[in-house]
Structures are given as structure tokens and as C-alpha cells.
Design goal:
With 375 residues, the chain is α/β, with parallel strands linked by helices. It has 2 domains: 196 residues, HypD, alpha/beta domain 1 (Rossmann fold); 144 residues, Rossmann fold, CATH 3.40.50.11740. Helix content is 37%, strand content 17%. The protein is built from 15 helices and 11 strands. Strands 2-1-7-8-9 form a 5-stranded parallel β-sheet. α1 runs parallel beside α11, α6 packs parallel to α7 and α7 packs across α12. The longest helix is centred in the middle third of the chain and has 17 residues. The two termini are 23 Å apart. 50% of the residues are buried.
Length: 375
């Protein structure tokens, strides 16, 4: 684990730590809802630096992790069909479903391919008109515009063999779920800056008013995170509950209107199951009816057989809601590891349990470097 003194802006980071410590009159509990932020907080030892004045909770900030196991099972079944190729981002290939991962399906003879962009999957469909190409589309609002563009491109080309298996999720409904929990310990939120570059943060104002919880839009560098934490603590100390933007170099209040327009052309908001949390009202997206041709759930339904999963023994819900620290889980780093995950927070490199596994251990015990999830 790195230390703040190793950070290139260590002096500024130290000043922000001092400001937070001098501002806080008690220990405040703040949750970040982005896996990239979780990694930065742990990698640079910020959690330790703020011990006693800020307790950091790591929310459901990894869309790869919260992709339902049943959807991955569906993708694996499709990949094993002779006329189907399943494509997705690299991190999705090793995430386990109830029965196997896409990588394991490939080892059993399934057609699975890693791509860098959904448009790559469109090109695969164009080059192979005799087979169906299914793109497993995951991610927060940041990746939705690119998959919407892929659908529009496939439609423009008249491709009948391109499909999406959609697992896009929305951040704010998950925050609503967390804030509405009777046992919630969250005093304030750090909003995911990359998501807000697309969505803006107008919708956070009624959230803050409804729950009396401050939200600070925050970036990913240690100074971004520390600035966000300080602004959050300052609000908590003064009894405020509003939205502030500590990531102004990238985020505007209205967000990216062009990206929003792309999303609205192709998708509609829908209830969506989150792995470890269940169905969240308005928690994701689905294709509009006019694009049903490209919906793999409609065109290629999976078998009716349902499987039970060993993830049921994982207290993922408590971890994702910030009610249980990963290191306090009885399965952490024993029966549950990144190579053999029991539940959502460990299934991808950006999950909170995977982050703790990587950084909350001694250097000699640290696992090898793993790539993060796609958000």
C-alpha cells in the first residue's frame, strides 16, 4: 500500500488532511459509491490518515460486481450455442455466474471474445452475418451512451444478427436504497465524478433535501477525494445537506446533454436487479420497444431451469450497504478471494472486498495486480 507521502501532491494532500481533522468535531461516516474511488482511498492510505474523524464506507460502486449471476449464466448458455458469439469487456469474462464464468464457458468450447468497445461487437456482427453476436453491456451511466451508439449503428447498417444483453445500472437509485435503509450509517455521500460528467447533478438536490444528507461530486485523485471529504465534513458540521461539486474541471451541473440524448433515444429507465441487493426500482436501463430486435433477452431467452448459487452465504447486501466492513466478514480472504469469490463485492477488481483484499494486507501477502472493473 502506498502512503500519502509518496503521492506527487503530497504537501497539498497533507494540508487537506489537516483541514479535515481541524474541521471535524466528531467521527463522521461517509460513503463513496465508485469502485475507482475505493481503490484510490485504500491505495493511498487515506482511510488510515482520517481514522477517528472520518469513517469511510465503500458502497456498491462496481457495475461489474452487481451484474446478476443469472444474467452471466444466460450469457454462458448463449456462448455455447453453435451460431452465437458473446462479446464483452475483459473484466466481465472472469466474473462468475451461478454455474461458470464466460472464460470457463470458452474453455468448454463456447464462443467468447474480449472487445474494447461495443462498436467492435457491431463490426464482428457485420463481418459474420451467419451468426448472432451478443454484446454483454455493463456499466453505470458512463458506458450507456456507447452501447446506445452501437444499437444505432447496427440499425443504420441493417444488421439483423447483433444483440445486446443489457445490464446497465443507475447510481442514484442505489443511493436512494442505501439512504432509505432504517439501519443506514451514512452521514454523507461522495458522488461518482465520472457518472456525473454524463448525468450532471441536478437530480441530487431533491435527494439531499429528502434524506437530509450532503452529497459532494468527487474525482479520483487523492486531492480530489480529500477535497470532497472536507466539503462533506464542512456541511455536516454546519448542519447543511446540499450538493457541491469538488470536480468542477470535469463535471457541469447539467452534465453532457449529447450523451443524455443518446441514452434517451435508445433506452428507457426500468427496475433492475443488482447482484447482492435485489431489484432496485428504476435501478437501470432496458432497450426501448422499438429496438426489441437487438434485445438478447427477447430474441434468445435462456432456459427455464433456475440454479441455486453459493453466493447466498455471502453477506453482500450488508457490505454493499456499508453495514459490514469487508475485513469483518467471516469469509474474507479465507473461503472468499478474487480467484474464488462468494459474492458481489469480490467478483471484480473494483469491488470493495477485492480492494481490501489487495490493499489491506501486508506486501508479502498481497495478491498479484488485477485489472479493475469497467464502469
Amino acid at each position: 500500500m502506498k502512503h500519502l507521502d509518496e503521492y506527487r501532491d503530497a504537501e497539498l494532500a497533507r494540508k487537506l488532511v489537516k483541514k479535515i481533522r481541524s474541521t471535524a468535531s466528531r467521527c463522521w461516516t461517509i460513503m463513496e459509491v465508485c469502485g475507482g474511488q475505493t481503490h484510490s482511498l485504500l491505495r493511498h492510505g487515506i482511510e488510515t490518515e482520517l481514522a477517528g474523524v472520518v469513517e469511510l464506507l465503500h458502497g456498491p460502486g462496481c457495475p461489474v460486481c452487481v451484474t446478476p449471476a443469472e444474467l452471466i449464466d444466460h450469457a454462458c448458455e448463449l456462448a455455447l450455442q453453435p451460431d452465437v458469439l458473446v462479446a464483452s469487456f475483459g473484466d466481465m469474462l472472469r466474473v462468475p455466474g451461478n454455474q461458470s464464468s464466460l472464460l470457463q464457458a470458452r474453455r468448454r468450447g463456447g464462443s467468447v471474445q474480449f472487445v474494447y468497445s461495443p462498436l467492435d461487437a457491431v463490426e464482428l456482427a457485420r463481418q459474420a452475418p451467419g451468426r448472432k453476436v451478443v454484446f454483454l453491456a455493463v456499466g453505470f451511466e458512463t458506458t450507456v451512451p456507447s452501447t446506445a451508439l452501437a444499437v444505432l449503428q447496427a440499425d443504420r447498417l441493417g444488421l439483423k444478427n447483433f444483440r445486446l444483453l443489457t445490464a446497465h445500472v443507475r447510481v442514484l437509485p442505489a443511493m436512494e436504497l442505501i439512504a432509505s435503509e432504517p439501519t443506514s450509517r451514512v452521514h454523507g455521500f461522495l458522488a461518482a465524478g465520472h457518472v456525473c460528467t454524463v448525468t450532471g447533478y441536478e437530480a441530487y438536490h431533491p435527494f439531499c433535501e429528502r434524506h437530509r444528507i450532503p452529497v459532494v461530486v468527487t474525482g479520483f485523485e487523492p486531492i480530489d477525494l480529500l477535497e470532497g471529504i472536507w466539503q462533506c465534513v464542512r456541511q455536516l458540521e454546519s448542519g447543511e445537506a446540499t450538493v457541491t461539486n469538488a470536480y468542477a474541471r470535469s463535471v457541469r451541473v447539467e452534465g453532457n446533454r449529447a450523451s443524455q440524448h443518446l441514452i434517451d433515444r435508445v433506452y428507457e429507465v426500468a427496475d433492475r436487479p443488482w447482484r447482492g441487493l435485489g431489484i432496485i426500482p428504476r435501478g437501470g436501463y432496458r432497450l426501448q420497444t422499438k429496438y426489441n430486435l437487438y434485445d438478447a433477452m427477447t430474441e434468445l431467452p435462456r432456459s427455464a431451469e433456475e440454479h441455486t448459487s453459493r453466493v447466498n452465504q455471502c453477506p453482500a447486501r450488508e457490505v454493499l450497504l456499508g453495514q459490514l466492513s469487508p475485513i469483518d466478514c467471516p469469509y474474507f480472504a479465507t473461503t472468499c478471494t478474487p480467484d474464488s469469490p462468494l459474492g458481489a463485492p469480490m467478483v471484480s477488481g473494483e469491488g470493495s472486498c477485492a480492494a481490501h483484499f489487495r490493499y489491506s494486507r501486508t506486501q508479502s501477502d498481497s495478491p498479484p495486480n488485477r485489472s479493475g472493473g469497467f464502469t
